[in-house]
Each structure stands twice: as structure tokens, then as C-alpha cells.
């Protein structure tokens, strides 16, 4: 029997937020599942969702002319997917594909964009979490690049 998935506030990205902050971020949250092989994001489509990966694995791919899809990174439970909603023109820059069945919380980006007079402490809390995710991803890419250069030596 599958284990029940943890509630929204237990996802590492949101852990530690106050109930008020959580309510503001999750004003339009839905549970969304994707079967293996399904696209969660398609490059060029409107970016309007932040996915909190609850289970499964997702690969980030970029279509390289003449070579096809190129794997850039693999995400797993506890990661977030989709940062293009942060900046205009609000379009996905990559494809994201489920390599196994994936369960997510899908948060509507309109709840998180821009300052909120009703929740003035939300923006700094969200910004710090997003910066941490970006830093962690940059660090993973750096380590992957080191492996590539090491393997070629």
C-alpha cells in the first residue's frame, strides 16, 4: 500500500512558514500527478505555476538543434520545479519530463508575484527560499561540470 504523502506545509520549500504566509502562497494550490514520460513544462509555454515535487523524478531538458533533447538536471521529491514565472515574459525556458510517476503540489504563481500589502512578511520569506533553491541548483550544476571536465581528462 502506498504511503500517504505529507501535507503541503511539510514540503521542504515551505517548511517553517507561518500559517498566514502559507495561506498567502497557497491561495490557489492543487495536487497534480503526472505519469512517467509526461511533460510537466514545455519550453515557450506560459509560466504560471510553481511545482513542489512530492514524489518521483523529473528531468529538465533543453532541445538542442541537431542533437534533440539534452538532459540538464534531475529533480526529486523535496525539490521545486519552475522558476520562469518569476520574470517577464513568464515563459518556460526548458522542458520538464517525468521519468517516473510524479506527484506535485501546483501553486498558482499569481499568488506569489509582487509585494502583497496583506502579507508584508511573505515576500522576504519567499525570496530567501527561492534564492536558496537557485544557489543549490547552481552548486549542483557546478559539480556536474567538474565531473564532465574530469571525465574528459
TrEMBL record:
The cross-references to PROSITE patterns, in alphabetical order and at most eight, read: CNMP_BINDING_3
State the Gene3D superfamilies in the record.
Jelly Rolls
Every copy of the Cyclic nucleotide-binding domain together lies at 13-82
**A Pfam match:** cNMP_binding
InterPro entries reported for this sequence? cNMP-bd_dom, cNMP-bd_dom_sf, Env_Response_Regulators, RmlC-like_jellyroll
One GO cellular component term, please give it.
cytosol
Could you give a GO molecular-function term held by this entry?
DNA-binding transcription factor activity
PANTHER family given for it? CRP FAMILY TRANSCRIPTIONAL REGULATORY PROTEIN (PTHR24567), HTH-TYPE TRANSCRIPTIONAL REGULATOR ARCR (PTHR24567:SF74)
Q: This chain belongs to which protein, by name? A: cAMP-binding protein
Which species does this protein come from?
A: Hyalangium minutum
Amino acid at each position: 500500500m502506498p504511503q500517504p504523502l505529507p501535507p503541503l506545509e511539510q514540503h521542504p520549500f515551505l517548511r517553517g512558514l507561518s500559517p498566514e504566509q502559507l495561506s498567502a502562497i497557497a491561495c490557489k494550490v492543487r495536487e497534480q500527478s503526472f505519469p512517467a514520460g509526461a511533460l510537466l513544462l514545455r519550453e515557450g509555454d506560459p509560466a504560471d505555476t510553481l511545482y513542489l515535487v512530492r514524489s518521483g523524478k523529473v528531468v529538465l531538458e533543453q532541445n538542442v538543434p541537431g542533437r534533440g533533447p539534452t538532459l540538464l538536471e534531475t529533480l526529486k521529491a523535496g525539490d521545486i520545479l519552475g522558476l520562469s514565472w518569476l520574470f517577464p515574459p513568464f515563459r518556460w525556458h526548458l522542458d520538464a519530463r517525468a521519468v517516473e510517476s510524479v506527484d506535485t503540489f501546483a501553486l498558482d504563481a499569481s499568488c506569489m508575484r509582487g509585494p502583497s500589502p496583506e502579507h508584508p512578511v511573505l515576500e522576504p520569506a519567499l525570496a530567501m527560499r527561492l534564492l536558496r533553491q537557485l544557489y543549490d541548483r547552481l552548486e549542483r550544476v557546478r559539480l556536474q561540470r567538474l565531473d564532465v571536465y574530469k571525465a574528459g581528462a
